């Protein structure tokens, strides 16, 4: 269905382009070629101009309908790009072994006690008063 509507859409777009180029323009547009003799339209007198105008309107309506149809047909398959992604696997963590937990606590206690014991005594802050001679 998408392919059929897509082909119709492209054909109508090309027809719409041709119809717009055929129509008379006030400033000697694309197919006017700057000639000043005779009629200004490619198809002839004013009757042909109204035919081109009517055909352009219908081609524009069909083009708009095919645009909307293509957007509805393609959007109904998935709601979002994220919905199409595969589900992420849950992260599994290994449980801690009971034998390793006390050893880790003893090592952590020793590591925190060692820097406190070897820390130098605090030095007093220098005075803010300048030295006088």
TrEMBL record:
<keyword id="KW-1003">Cell membrane</keyword>
<keyword id="KW-0653">Protein transport</keyword>
<keyword id="KW-0813">Transport</keyword>
<comment type="function">
    <text>Involved in protein export. Participates in an early event of protein translocation.</text>
</comment>
<feature type="transmembrane region" description="Helical">
    <location>
        <begin position="55"/>
        <end position="73"/>
    </location>
</feature>
<keyword id="KW-1133">Transmembrane helix</keyword>
<dbReference type="Pfam" id="PF03840">
    <property type="entry name" value="SecG"/>
</dbReference>
<keyword id="KW-0811">Translocation</keyword>
<feature type="transmembrane region" description="Helical">
    <location>
        <begin position="6"/>
        <end position="22"/>
    </location>
</feature>
<comment type="similarity">
    <text>Belongs to the SecG family.</text>
</comment>
<protein>
    <recommendedName>
        <fullName>Protein-export membrane protein SecG</fullName>
    </recommendedName>
</protein>
<keyword id="KW-0472">Membrane</keyword>
<dbReference type="InterPro" id="IPR004692">
    <property type="entry name" value="SecG"/>
</dbReference>
<keyword id="KW-0812">Transmembrane</keyword>
């Amino acid at each position: 269905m998408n392919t059929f509507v897509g082909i119709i859409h492209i054909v109508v777009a090309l027809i719409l382009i041709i119809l717009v180029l055929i129509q008379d323009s006030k400033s000697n547009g694309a197919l006017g070629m700057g000639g000043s003799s005779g009629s200004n339209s490619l198809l002839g007198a004013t009757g042909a101009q109204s035919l081109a105008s009517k055909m352009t309107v219908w081609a524009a309506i069909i083009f708009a309908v095919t645009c909307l149809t293509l957007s509805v047909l393609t959007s109904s398959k998935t709601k979002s790009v994220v919905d199409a992604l595969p589900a992420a696997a849950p992260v599994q963590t290994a449980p801690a072994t009971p034998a390793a937990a006390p050893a880790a606590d003893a090592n952590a206690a020793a590591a925190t006690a060692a820097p406190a014991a070897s820390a130098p005594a605090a030095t007093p802050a220098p005075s803010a008063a300048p030295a006088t001679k």
